[in-house]
Amino acid sequence: MTVVSERKPALVFADGSAKSAERAVPAEVAIAMSYRGSSHAVMMATPADLVDFAYGFSLTEGIVGSAVEILEVDVVPFDKGIDLQITLAGDRSDALAARRRSMAGPVGCGLCGLESIDAAMRSVLRVGDGFTLRPQDVNAAVEALFPQQPLFAETRAVHGTGFYRPGEGMLVVREDVGRHNALDKLVGALVRQGIEGATGAVVVTSRLSVEMIQKTATAGATVLIAISNPTALAIDTAEAAGITLIATARGDGFSVYTHAHRVKVRDNG
């Protein structure tokens, strides 16, 4: 069984005294995403829900266009980390290999840097109409997330993401030391469980950067609720994607930055 937390000794200072104690901390492991036997990216992540992670990363990074293009995921542990060996359908595997070849070039060539910027600032997918929710649904979504974060309860050191559907509650929750990783795991879990992103809201415990908006759009989710604040670019990207961006939601109120028409004060509109 993969260890997701450890107990480490610490000298604890409190109330004017110091004492030796143990504290629970989350595990952090190098996770490689490998396609066709070659490592594509390595992330430092919590070693849990790794198949979800492989699916979500492959989708949100545009390596595949749909989950059916992923044929198999093998989780291979090594002394210094874990290799996720992801087998793609033939056409998608060939396209990824061609993209790698096109990116190859001498150091400082300029072209590679420009392509990297283009990738970071890629056009965001536009989501559909989705659903509407009430202010009390927003507060309920935030309140429902924390009780389903066992690793956070143990360590107070990981991010959480969840998928909330009004009337049904929190359907899926994923945790990770990295906020992007946690969202990738959630996206992977949704597609593997056949849950349509447009039917509920993504809820996150972290601040919102542009990558978080891009990943949410990949899942087709129309509402993104965050406990912290967004960046300016995240707001602009959510506006372009058609996503309702709700921030500083902490159970006692919130701010809606984009597409506020989905938040209905009264049921009759």
TrEMBL record:
Gene Ontology MF terms in the entry: sulfur carrier activity; sulfurtransferase activity
Primary localization: cytoplasm
Keywords: Cytoplasm, Molybdenum cofactor biosynthesis
Example GO BP: Mo-molybdopterin cofactor biosynthetic process
Subcellular compartments: Cytoplasm
GO cellular component annotations of the record: cytoplasm
Active-site residues, record numbering mapped to chain: C109 (cysteine persulfide intermediate)
Pfam families with a match to the protein in the record: FdhD-NarQ (PF02634)
Entry-linked NCBIfam families: fdhD_narQ
Sequence similarity: Belongs to the FdhD family.
Summary of the function given for this chain in its UniProt record: Required for formate dehydrogenase (FDH) activity. Acts as a sulfur carrier protein that transfers sulfur from IscS to the molybdenum cofactor prior to its insertion into FDH.
Name this polypeptide is given: Sulfur carrier protein FdhD
Native organism: Martelella endophytica
Lineage of source species: Bacteria, Pseudomonadati, Pseudomonadota, Alphaproteobacteria, Hyphomicrobiales
